[in-house]
Write a structure and sequence with these properties.
The complex is a heterodimer. Chain A is an alpha/beta fold. Chain A is built from four helices and 15 strands. The chains are: A alpha/beta, B alpha/beta. The interface between A and B is medium-sized, with 14 and 12 residues.
Chain lengths: 257, 270
Amino acid sequence: MSKPIEFKTGTLSAMSAIIRELDNVRLADTMHTMLGGLGEFFAGEATVIDLTQLTKAPERADWAGLLSLLRRYGLQPIAVRQAPEHLVESARKAGLAILSADAGRMSAERPVAAPTAPAPVAPAPEPAQASLDMPAPPTGTATMIIERPLRSGQQIYARGSDVVILGGVSNGAEIIADGSIHCYGPLRGRALAGAQGHTAARIITTCFAPELVSIAGVYRTFERGIAANLAGKPAHAVLRANAAGQQTLNIETLQLD
Amino acid sequence: MTRVIVVTSGKGGVGKTTSSASFASGLALRGFKTAVIDFDVGLRNLDLIMGCERRVVYDFVNVISGDANLHQALIKDRHCENLFVLPASQTRDKDALTEEGVEKVLNDLKHMGFDYVICDSPAGIEHGAIMALTFADEAIVVTNPEVSSIRDSDRILGILQSKSRRARDGQEPVKEHLLITRYSAKRVDEGEMLSYKDVQELLRVPLIGVIPESESVLQASNSGTPVIHTKDEDAADAYQDVVARFLGEERELRFVNFEKPGLFKRLFGG
């Protein structure tokens, strides 16, 4: 007879929320700006609260508030990494696993939740680590093709491949791909290419009007509108290294005819 | 073959029930045996607009729960020979609309030889709205030319793509039609309202008609006569065009261009 329970060890890839200031009000404010105020930005990913870059440890932490804030955006916090000594006990009580600094080394390729980021562009990851952990570009999977418009509230993830959308992406819809996103028609929703950290991914559209574009975690929102030379025009978003060697998100017009 | 058509919008107050009533009446006037079902359990509007509220004995939920059969519950319309109304219940619990129950009623209507069944959806994206669109072959998405209505219509189009029986079974998708209501060519001309072209461009669904904003719509609702029966009225003509286009006829769009009144008209009135 099989045992009613068994224990096995396994590895889990998790989102990492690198928190530099443990101030829930500031975090809430920053996340609202970064993520466009849209709840359920993430899709229930397991999340490690990473405090390795904490600038100043507060005397006490409001874990319950922080957990509820992260959950509001669809993150599922499971652990805290390198919590200051005096906060360990309360974190454990809040139901978080305690990880040491070197436990669960993670790729800094997708620093989506770096709260002190000077929006709109997320901070570039430390170059050394970035090159070490660079995931290989997705290969071998057939391109996903979507023939109907992607409507408000719908979300599609092209795992390990490019995606081609023939009907456009409406406001409030979200298209995510590990590879590039090719949108023939208006791109009005949110587009996240290179979701696994593939920095050469691009977002190409015949009509540029998105709420957010992101490549390998470097994102830009357009709450204050899109520059007139780009709005509604053929354009692509691409990561390019600037003089300081940092990856910046460039949006460039395309000549189609 | 019976065709099931859902009239839906996401947003409330855009003219779903008004459109359901006039569209169903228009089909019946052309000789098609038509039933129109009010899915707004708990509120009841359709029977008022159709002018049959005093003849409601049994309702949709009674039929689903087996308290009455369809023949008892269907109310014959007082304006058209071929039109029957299945009213919503005002008192029952919303969960009374079960998927099996709705499917059985629709199948029974098919066996009774109906050509068209119009499902008047409640607002929102809750259970009642989902039930109204689940079995649809075609969908008329009613939208006002304003941003929140367009966004909600977009959302409901996405739900049609995922929750309808046709989508779930991988059949040919639900055929979508865009119906723009409460359109004021004058306000569009003055730049205060999105044009029908803007709306169509945002939603990317074939346009089946544009209904002009009109006081006679309200008067018709209050008098319990679907506006399509009103003589010499733009909104009525626009609904006639919708029915014609639905049946495959070519009709040019009317009532979408604003003509500035000339001096004579301004002096002496229209």
